[in-house]
Amino acid sequence: MRQEELEQLQIKALEQFKSGKSLFGKDGAFAPMLKQFLEAALESEMEEYLDEQERSGGNKRNGKGKKTIKSSTGTFEIETPQDRQSNFEPQIIKKRETVLADNLQDKIIGLYGLGMSLRDISAHIKEMYDTDISHTVLSQITDRIIPEVKAWQNRPLEPVYCIVWLDAMHYKVRCEGKVEHKALSNILGINTAGMKEVLGMYVSESEGANFWLQVLTDLHNRGLKDILIACTDNLKGFSQAIQSVYTKAEVQSCIVHQVRNSLKYVASKDQKEFMRDLKEVYRADTKDLAEMELDSLASKWQGKYPIVIQSWQNNWEKLTTYFQYTAPIRKLIYTTNAVEGYHRQIRKVTKTKGAFTSDIALQKLVYLATKNIEKKWTSPLQNWSLTVQQLAIKFGNRLPLDLAHSPGQGLAPDQN
């Protein structure tokens, strides 16, 4: 390069650098250098490929093609060498590869995982990198995580989880030109070290006991052999489905779900007084006291709201499992707040989606959102050392302390 050309290059590069323009994209000062480097590298790969053995088989060069490359430094066009038999597989820029550099692909997947639409991602990439990427290419890039999603859904699980919450979210999904309502069932567990973990997600036509039986069977087949306490909503047949697979599991139906369902059938003018009386039931110190308060509730409201009172009486055993435990454990299990908190974070990401194009599109986004959420789950539950000892006493050899803590972890104080 002559001195005059070098000086012009320096001036152009400095202007583009100061203005924030891409130095490597279209009309970028360094674009010709990057183009020359890549083309020279491809030529070297072709020369190495067309060795004596390849040439003896009748293969040789067959002109050049053109390819537009999109990268985090901009968009530019290069010439690619071709062979007569079309067997040459370049490594620096692979066949059919139009998006160069893993970091740009990682950015695209990261933006998708934050809930950005393909349209918004395309605009963002254009603004940041002066690179146009079509919706088709963006979709192909996000599809690359599908094997990762499948592997995560089928990964082995630990043999024992202390507490497991089971609940579902509902989404619209397009299927054969129609929009259908699908249930996305999620399982959140606390392992023996006190760490939160999403055990799985499953898409179905509806949320029912038969479907949950399939989910629980899948968990068992993946290595989860024992659940100490299972927390659920009040879906009919749910407890039977759980205990048909995990026969020793204690099942706690969600008090909050029961309260919400009850209030649907209580007149608005009575709700405040009814709730004051109902709190005396589920906030009692012992199960015996709770039963006395339930009798008082029934004597006062039975005539006016017999269906509500009957629901509490019929579901009493499932609703009162938590009375066996101390206050910290009760707080964990008497509602499905833990999994609902996880759901709230998922909805922040999915709320911009009207309807997903397929089941796997829904699963891709929820998986990426889950990975981001789990990054924050770095510490055991508060006071887990005390909690796990109480569980070990309650459940005996189903949760021995040498299992409850990995070697070297001992019973050190938990992090908040």
Walkthrough of the structure:
- Required for the transposition of the insertion element.
- GO terms for molecular function: DNA binding; transposase activity.
- 50% of the residues lie in helices and 17% in strands.
- By secondary structure, it is of the alpha/beta class.
- It folds into two domains: 3-147, no CATH class; 156-374, no CATH class.
- The strands form two sheets. It has a five-stranded mixed β-sheet, sandwiched between helices. The protein has a two-stranded antiparallel ribbon with strand order 1-2.
- α4 (102-113) packs across α17 (359-374) and α8 (209-221) runs parallel beside α9.
- The longest helix has 19 residues, at 31-49.
- The chain starts with a helix and ends in a 12-residue tail after the last helix.
- The model is unreliable at 403-416 (pLDDT under 50).
User: How many strand units?
Assistant: 7
β content, as a range?
A: 15-25%
What order do the strands of the largest sheet run in, or round the barrel if closed?
5-4-3-6-7
Largest beta-sheet details: 5 strands, mixed
Overall 3D shape:
elongated
Q: Based on helices, strands and strand pairing, what is the structural class?
A: alpha/beta
